[in-house]
Each structure stands twice: as C-alpha cells, then as structure tokens.
C-alpha cells in the first residue's frame, strides 16, 4: 500500500478553497467530499474535522457520510482502480471466480493497493450492467462480460 502523503499548508489552502466554493450549496457535504477526493485522490483524515467545523456539523456526521458511500476513500488509491461487481446477477455469471483470480493475481484483499502502486482492488454491489455480467469498472470505464483473459489484460496494462 502506498504511504499517505502529509497534509501540509498547501493542502490546507486547497481545502479552504474547496470549502469556499461549495459551502453555500444545499447539502454541501457531498460536493465538498467529492471535490476533495478529486483534488487529492482521497479524503485525508486531517480534512474531515476542518470540513465539519466549516459546515457546523459534527465530526461523526462528516465521517458517517464519508464512510457510508463506497466511492470515498480515506487513503490514496493506485494509478488504476479496479472494481468488480459482487451483486447476485454477476455472481450467477461467474463473478466469484473472477474475484478469486483477481485477488490471487494481485495478492490483494478489498480496498488494498499493490506494492508498486499500480492497482487498487475494490468491490461494488451493482454497476448496472446486470445483463452483461460479470461486470467490472476500470478507472470509471465499464467492462461487461468480464473474464480472466480481460482481467489479465487490464492488470498487464495497468502495470506497464
């Protein structure tokens, strides 16, 4: 897993710019969390108390919202994010074998990143591609009818 970068003065400045640009929105917490993750690649733990204070909510509420949504992460991701659908429709089409192959090939568990920082493995519970299962998402791009060959090609490309 990659080391967590330091959240210094420059990052604090960027966070305050994000807050200033979004705090006026109704339900501002989600847009702020999205903007922070877009900017830094994750939501740093140091950012949550600042966000909570700015929005006049508790730290627990900010943390609860962040941890509820699976797309927010509290650590940096790899250069490629591989999400494999584990919903029932994809399981019926062989997703469990795909999951086993991915975890064995990458030597990872869910939400972990390869030592070289190339790939982060995530599980999701529906990508909306049920008719073309098993499904994966690679850096936001859907992959239907996924199989071991497609998975191996994605892994090889991510590591090149």
TrEMBL record:
Textual note on the cofactor: Binds 1 [2Fe-2S] cluster.
CDD domains: TRX_Fd_NuoE_FDH_gamma
Domain of life: Bacteria
Catalyzed reactions per annotation: a quinone + NADH + 5 H(+)(in) = a quinol + NAD(+) + 4 H(+)(out)
Family annotation (Gene3D superfamilies): Glutaredoxin (3.40.30.10), NADH-quinone oxidoreductase subunit E (1.10.10.1590)
Binding site for [2Fe-2S] cluster: 85, 90, 126, 130
Keyword S-adenosyl-L-methionine assigned: no
GO terms for MF: 2 iron, 2 sulfur cluster binding; metal ion binding; oxidoreductase activity
UniProt-recorded name of the protein: Formate dehydrogenase subunit gamma
Species assigned in the record: Pararhodobacter oceanensis
Lineage: Bacteria, Pseudomonadati, Pseudomonadota, Alphaproteobacteria, Rhodobacterales
